[in-house]
Design goal:
The complex is a heterodimer. Chain A is an alpha/beta fold. Chain A has one domain (7-67, 75-137): Cobalamin-binding domain (Rossmann fold, 3-Layer(aba) Sandwich). Chain A contains five helices and five strands; from the N terminus they run E-H-E-H-E-H-E-H-E-H. The two termini of chain A are 16 Å apart. Chain B is of the alpha/beta class. In chain B, helix 7 (174-179) links the parallel strand 6 and strand 7. In chain B, helix 1 (2-12) crosses helix 2 (16-28), helix 1 packs across helix 3 and helix 4 (60-73) packs across helix 9 (236-253). Chain B starts with a helix and ends with a helix. Classes of the chains: A alpha/beta, B alpha/beta. Chain A binds chain B through residues 1-5, 7, 26-27, 29-40, 43-44, 46-47, 50-51, 53-56, 83-85, and chain B through 15-17, 19-21, 23-24, 28-31, 86-87, 90-96, 98-99, 102, 105-106, 111-114, 116, 118, 274, 277.
Chain lengths: 138, 318
Amino acid sequence: MTEQKIRVLVAKPGLDGHDRGAKTVASILRDRGMEVIYTGLHQTPEMIAEAATQEDVDVVGLSILSGAHMELFPRVRAELVKRGMGHVLLVGGGIIPNDDMKKLEADGFAKLFGPGTRTDDIGVYIETEMKKRRAHSA
Amino acid sequence: MSEVRDLAARFRAGHKAALARAISWAENGDPSYPEFLRSVYASVGRAWRTGITGPPGAGKSTLVNELAKNLRARDRTVGILAVDPSSPISGGALLGDRIRMEERTSDAGVYIRSMASRGGHGGLSRASSDACDVIDAFGIDEVLLETVGVGQAEYDVVSATDTVVVVLCPGAGDGIQAMKAGILEVADVLVVNKVDLPGSDRLLMDLEESAHIRHAGTGRWIPPVVGCSAGKSQGIDEVLAAMDSHRDHLRATGLAAVRAAKRVAQVQRVLHERLAVQLWGAGGQGERVRALLEAGRTPYDVVDELAEHFTSALRSRA
């Protein structure tokens, strides 16, 4: 009787008060059948990694519009690894230049979604990745 | 099965990630969970479990956050389970209770877990009791189990916890009236939150009156009625004092018997679920039932026939 849901933490690191995008993505993932934990604004990398650990999520999605992604995203990644959560599917989105996306994707982020991304693409990407991972570990 | 041993070892060493994974196993019905529980079950039974229930918007999460803060000030470690509804359409869920508990996130003495109800109709998810057990076995002192926003008939919290706190707020009018015959009857502590809003005096009085009318002369526990304003951190110690008085009462009158009865209820529920899945899921029941109904049989006749079929199948297996 196993029913394994995809659990996702949607978080906004740093001093960025705009969460329309994060909430939209959270709702869309919920409507695709995922369990989405939303932690609110102004989260430190430590808080995000700690919440991800306590919630045993499969996916962490970071949203940022402040421009501080190159500072904050790697710190979230480091805090996750520190807690033994390096295995989570780590994704991010926001106003992030292409070069930065490439750097982050070379540094532990699975995928970054820039402006103009179709929300369905995010859901499909997560589902596809999780299916691969679960087939691999089964 | 070394995976179980490995998890149990990390669990005993106090790693929250191991605690979190054990709860996931329970939630997912993972085949490793029963063995895991067996390996830590000797440590279950030391935590005190308090259920926080009430209608949507009464302020349950805010109160839980405040209770956790005050319990931490008393040097008690706290595990919070916050259940939110799963969508009946997509099966997904948006779990937002952590937002009101974020001050607790970085406290090493607190563990917070959001749970989706996953089809549970009693205000909890199927695995909520398991999650309480796991948190208890981890060595945490106090479990606060917050149900989904409830209406009238969500009683699972009673068998999952030791003390049931029902949180109400003024201005819900007829909603409260309707609840008088329901969840109010299982409350061990009644809390009127947002007590600074108009109408709270009346609500406090109504609750006092009905609690006394219901229990006077029965020798049963009369739930204390307490007002607070969780959003302003006011009256929280009074709520805790009321919870403590119920705890003392249970300890004085036979906690072991009460807990044993609740365990029986849990076993009954799990058995019920397993049989339902096995019997109904044994294949083709839906088709069979549809055919019988189309042949003009009443639903009761169909149930009789299915029950007869199941019991004879069980008998032949025995």
